[in-house]
Amino acid sequence: MTSTPVELNGVAYSLPERPVVVVCVDGGDPAYLSAAANSGVIPNTQRFMREGFSAISHCVMPSFTCPNNISIATGSPPTVHGISGNFYLDRETGEAVVMTGPELLCSRTIFDVIASAGARTVVITAKDKLRKQLGKGLDVSAGNVCFSSQCADVCTLAEHGIENALEFVGRPLPDIYSEDLSLFVLDAGIRFLESQSTPLLMYLSLTDYVQHKYAPDHPKALEFYKALDDRFGRLEELGAVVGLIADHGMKDKCSGDGEYNIIYLQDLLDERFGKNTTKVICPITDAFVGHHGALGGFVRVHCFDGAKPEDVIAFIRPMNGIEAIYDRAQAAETLDLPYDTEADAVVISDENYCVGAAKADHDLAGLNGERLRSHGGFSEQDVPFILSRRLNEAYTERASAERLRNYHIFDFAVNGTA
Ligand SMILES: [Zn+2]
User: Fold this and answer.
1) Where are the beta strands (DSSP E) in 134-240?
2) Distance in Å, CA 64 to ligand 1 centroid
3) Which one of 196, 287, 289, 297 has the fewest CB atoms closer than 10 angstroms to its CB?
């Protein structure tokens, strides 16, 4: 194995000499850590924070899962890797184009680059759509592995670099709507560290099922954080440098009496400018039609004949619950988003509000009357940045001089620990 560092998007990565494991706690708002720490259920994480390194960093905008996982995996903002949501509207064709596949990802990943240099690399995600993107370019015929707990029952050596994954992990296939989907990912990571050919680089990306459903001090959230913490402790015990990061935070989007605070922007725009003059895109959704609420803190608006962008922006700006609105160029510039796929207006709601398309596009039945918790805006940009080991001198200096982003985690974990 060569000891020459490998380079990606302006960052030089040394090849790890001991296992480095980064866990992305999906929707891991700092409030969950505080509540769990106050309840005394996360002793391992607290030890990392005390004896290693702990800070609050910022995720990229929009504060959604996909753009942030890709940023973490490439060490770069969306302007570099091209993924700014789950899908975008093609200006030429008017068609929705899915961004969650590997096709539009225009950067190599840290996994691909480090694995190519000879360090065995393992990537495990909760959901399969993320697995396809994160696994881009990773050579699974060379001992590297990339699979999801969602589809752990159908892994093949040819596509995932592992077969009989359920047997390997020693757990049944988890339900996609359960905390087990995340715990399975961590247990799989632990098995790899316990195995003969220990990987040197691992990325374990969880799902935010629990955080969408439960407030930080809910017994179910505390129970989940305890289960995570037990596993973080085990990863460290097995000799890994453990990095903990999140793709975005999570906030309650209800008024005091539990009423959902939702701005149905498409309905308001239709009323003001007329039908078919604007199109509101909710890039949090998995498909063009809304489901499971599909409500977040960030939407894009496309303007057609009859609705000028400047008029649309002036109409939306004073609305109650709107924190910020940008035109296309400002959005690209201010939020580090790729201009090509950006809309005419980007709308960001405040901490207590969600913004959606038309009321008819959002099915809230799946919430079962529970409180609405979501993300996408600036209010969910704060995420924990934790390492199990102390930083070396150079990175201690960087940490105090720079605005720390969640996508610096691999750089810090691989290059920056003492
Ligand atoms: Zn997420």
Assistant:
1) 145-148, 201-205
2) 6
3) 196
**Ligand 1 centre distance from Cα of residue 343 (Å):** 22
Task: Say what the pTM is.
Answer: 0.96
Distance from residue 403's CA to the centre of ligand 1 (Å) = 21
Question: 208 CA to middle of ligand 1, Å?
Answer: 6
CA 379 to centroid of ligand 1, rounded, Å: 14
CA angle 320, 325, 326 (to 5 degrees): 170
- Asked if the model's pLDDT at residue 238 lies above 80, the reply is yes
**Of residues 18, 34, 16, 10, the one with CA closest to residue 386:** 34
**How many A from CA of 211 to the centre of ligand 1?**
9
Rounded to 5 degrees, what angle do the CA atoms 227, 230, 236 make? 140
Average pLDDT, the chain: 94
- Residue 120 Cα to ligand 1 midpoint, Å, equals 26
C-alpha gyration radius of the chain? 21
Distance from C-alpha of 113 to C-alpha of 115, rounded to nearest angstrom? 6
Task: For residue 416, give the nearest of 386, 388, 392 by alpha carbon.
Answer: 392
396 alpha carbon – ligand 1 mean position (Å): 28
What mean pLDDT comes out for the span 305-311? 96
In 207-356, DSSP assigns E strands to 241-245, 251-252, 262-264, 278-281, 298-303, 322-327, 345-349, 354-356
* Ligand 1 center to 71 CA (angstroms): 13
The answer to whether the beta carbons of residues 74 and 9 sit under 8 Å apart is yes
Instruction: Tell me the pLDDT tens digit for each residue of 282-299.
Output: 988 765 433 357 899 999
CA of 251 relative to ligand 1 center, distance in Å: 12
CB atoms within 10 A of CB 290: 21
